[in-house]
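#structure-requests
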Amino acid sequence: MLIGDQVLSYGEGEYFVAAVEVAALGQIAKATRENPYLSLNLRLDPTIISGILMDLPEGSAPPFLSGFVIGKADSLMLDAWRRMVYLLDRPEEMAVLSPLIERDILYRLLKEPSGALLRQIVGSETRLSNISKSMTWLRSNFGKSARVDELAAIVGMSPSVFHKHFRAVTGLSPIQYQKQVRLHEARRRLSQTPVDVAGVAISIGYESVSQFSREYKRLFGSSPTQDAKRLYALNPRG
């Protein structure tokens, strides 16, 4: 997985936890028809995490971390995941038992190095929550020009500290993050209107169509026109 300029590699028996919506590119490095790549996903519920923390001894404030972490699942965590998968064939038991197993999984994540990151998720005034607020603003206002000092002011941080922690959380600078949000939104729009490259570029905040085309190709590997036609052909609108 590539997040910003960081390359993360993880495999069998390991977990990846993301506390915020990071811009990531991933590739499965090893899989065959006989031994396929299989993974499980669990959406982190801050309410459940908070409830577990209330039953744990109060610890010191966790250090500020990046917005993602990789760890090795121990036998107890793997057993909890197995029990969760077991319920897929027993839907009548799912409603009763899955919340208990989910709590078990989150408890074990809290006991691992990932626990500090999970504690940051539920904090209302942590630096992680402040960075998350700025990311939400950038996603909601991707068409507007953004300055680091203005974003820092929104979350009550100095520009230098804000920039440092934003990169730690997302792997990107604030401007790079906004650029990726813009380009992903452009790709979504072009899949619906593949012939209007200039109109889409301007609608997401670009002043130069040529710059948009260069940055689009750098991220997605083909020009906006070529990529849009391919996506439209895969899912044509009638």
